[in-house]
Every structure is written in structure tokens, then in C-alpha cells.
Design brief:
4-stranded antiparallel sheet, 3% helix, 1 helix, mainly beta, 7-stranded mixed sheet
């Protein structure tokens, strides 16, 4: 069964932090490449971070502020977001696909998606 469920979104002031979690079914978690995308109103869905057994990637806009990690014992994916700015406001989606990750992946490269969690950063 394919299942990805995000949690941890909310409203925070600029400079604050949030940690997003993604609970995956065992089948989905065994997909090789997992990641986080986000979509702001009127904008395309953009890659935030990806992770597989070989490493992680982060979009340039979040490097130094966000960290992506996995907990294999819990089948969970995380996104730690620090120093948030209003530009980070978006719906954040957890995603997974078979096969390894590679740089500059787009949303069309991923097959499985969660329902999304809203992150709102106020100035």
C-alpha cells in the first residue's frame, strides 16, 4: 500500500523553525529516493530536498537553513526548517520514487505523493 502522510506544518514568524515529518507505509519507504517539494500559490511545485542511501540534496534557496533526514526504524522522513522567511510560505509535500535520487529532480520524476502540509511564515 502506498501511503505518505505529512505533519508538522503551521504558522510561524520569520526567523522561526518548524520540523515537518512524513510517515510512510513500509512499501513506500522502501522506494529508493524520497524528498520534499513545496508549492506556493500561483507557482510551480519546486524541489526542496531529496535523500537516498547515497546522500542528500538541497535547493540553493534553503541550503544552510533546512536539513533533510530519515529514520529507518520508524519509516519516517523529516525536514528541519530553520531561519524561516516569508518566501518559504507554501504547501510542503512528501514524495517518493523507485530508483536513486539525482540532482535537480522535478516533480514529474516522482510517483508517490502525500496530501501536503501548509507552512505559513509571517514577517
Amino acid at each position: 500500500q502506498v501511503q505518505l502522510v505529512e505533519s508538522g506544518g503551521g504558522s510561524v514568524q520569520a526567523g522561526g523553525s518548524l520540523r515537518l515529518s512524513c510517515a510512510a507505509s513500509e512499501y513506500t519507504y522502501r522506494q529508493s529516493c524520497m524528498g520534499w517539494f513545496r508549492q506556493a500559490p500561483g507557482k510551480e511545485r519546486e524541489r526542496v530536498a531529496t535523500i537516498d542511501d547515497y546522500g542528500t540534496t538541497l535547493a540553493d534557496s534553503v541550503k544552510g537553513r533546512f536539513t533533510v533526514s530519515k529514520d529507518n526504524a520508524k519509516n519516517k522522513l523529516y525536514l528541519q526548517m530553520n531561519s524561516l522567511t516569508p518566501e518559504d510560505t507554501a504547501t510542503y509535500y512528501c514524495t517518493a520514487r523507485a530508483g536513486v535520487c539525482y540532482s535537480h529532480m522535478s516533480y514529474s520524476d516522482f510517483r508517490y505523493w502525500g496530501q501536503g502540509t501548509q507552512v505559513t511564515v509571517s514577517s
